[in-house]
Amino acid sequence: MQPPPLVPPRPEKSPSVIEQSLNPLPPARLGWLDALRAVAALAVVLDHSSYAFLPEFRQEVMPQFNIGRYGIMLFFLVSGYIVPASLERRGCVRSFWIGRVFRMYPLWAAAVTAMLALNLLGVAELRAGLGRQSLTTVAVAHVTLLQELLGTPSLLLVLWTLSYEMAFYLLVVALFTVRLHRRSAAIAVTLAVLAAVSAAVGGTLPVSALSGAVGTGPLVALTTIALVLAICGASSATPALRVAGGVLGGVAALVLVAFNGTVAMWEGLVILAVMFLGTAVHRAENGGSGRRRMAGTAAVVVACAVGGAYWYGDGAHSTRRGWILAFLMAALTFGAGLAARHRRVPRPLTALGTISYSVYLVHPVLLTVTDGTVGRWRYDVPALEAAFVAVLLPLCALTYRYVEVPGQAWGRRLARRVQPGSRGGGQPMW
Question: Whole-prediction pTM value?
Fold first, then answer.
C-alpha cells in the first residue's frame, strides 16, 4: 500500500503591514487580555464620541447601561491582573517604577502637549476649573498623575482613571515592601466592604474634601513631596527605607482615594477593590490561592459594589441601573475572557488591544478637533461615528509605533541597567 501523496500545508495568511506595526510583540503576549483591552477601549470611545455623533442613542442607552463605566471597570480588572505580577516577576521596585514611568508618561506627555497646542491655536478649550488654580499647581498635580485625587480637574477627561491607577501602584508597592502582596484576596474583600459601608452611611464627605480643608496648592505640594520620598525610599537598597517608603506611598494613596477623590468614596474604594480582585484571579490561576477562595472574593466584591451603587445611585453623579449593569457586564466580560484564554484570539482584536492605551488617550484629543469643526449633532449620524473611528485607529497606530514603542524600549534598557540580569519591560497594563 502506497502512502498518500504529500500535500503541502496551506500557508497561513500573512499579516498586513498595518497589523505588523500594531502588533510587533512576540506571540507570548496574553492574547485574551489584549482582546479585553480592545473591547474596553472601544466602549470608552463610544461613550465619549456618542455625545457628538450619536446623541439619541446615548440618551436611550446610558440610563440603562453606562458604557463608559463598563469599559473603565474592564480596564481596571485587566490592570489588577497584570501589574502586581509584573512587580513580583521583577522582584525590584526600582525597575518596576522605571517600567511604569516609561510605559505611561511618553504618550501622556504627547497627548497633553497636543491638547495645549490645540488650545493655543483656538481649536480646543481647556476644561472648566483649570483657570481657577495657579499654573504651577495644575502642572505639578498632572505630573504626579494624581491630579484627580488632588482637587485639580484633569486636562483630558480620561486622565482621571490614571490617578486611580497610580494610587493602585503605590498600594501594590507598599504591600510588596512589607511582604503582604500575596494577601490580595483579603485586601480586595476589605476594600469592598469598606466601600459598601461608606455608601450605606450616605457618603457624608463631599468630593475633594481634603482640598477643601487644607487648600489645593498645599495638598499638591505635600503629596508631591510624599510621592518623591515614597518612590525613592521604596526603591532603596536599605530594607528600612524600602519599608518606610512603601508604607508612606500606600497610606498617601489610600487617604487620597478615600477622602479626596472626585468620585464618591464608595466608588473610589470599589475601583481599588476591583483591581485587587484582578490580582486575586491571577494568583488563583497561577497556584497562589484556591479557586474557591477567588470565587468567594469575586462574589463579595461584586455584591458590595452593586450594593454601594444601589444605596448611592440615582443622584446627579450615578444612575443606579446604568452603573450596576455596566459593572456586572464588565465582570462577566472579564470572566468570559478568562474562560476562553486558551483559545486563539482574532488578530484584529489583539492588534487593537496592543494600541488600546493610544486609543484611550488620543480619542479625546481628536474629539476636541471634531467639536471645533463638524461640531456636535442633535440626532444620530452613524456615518460620522464610523468616520471618527476610521481616522482614530490609524492615528493611534502611529502614536503607538512612534511614541509608545520607543518609550517602552528606553524603559527596558534603563531597567536592565538598574537590575543586572533582568529582562525588564514586563507586560503593559493597557
Answer: 0.88
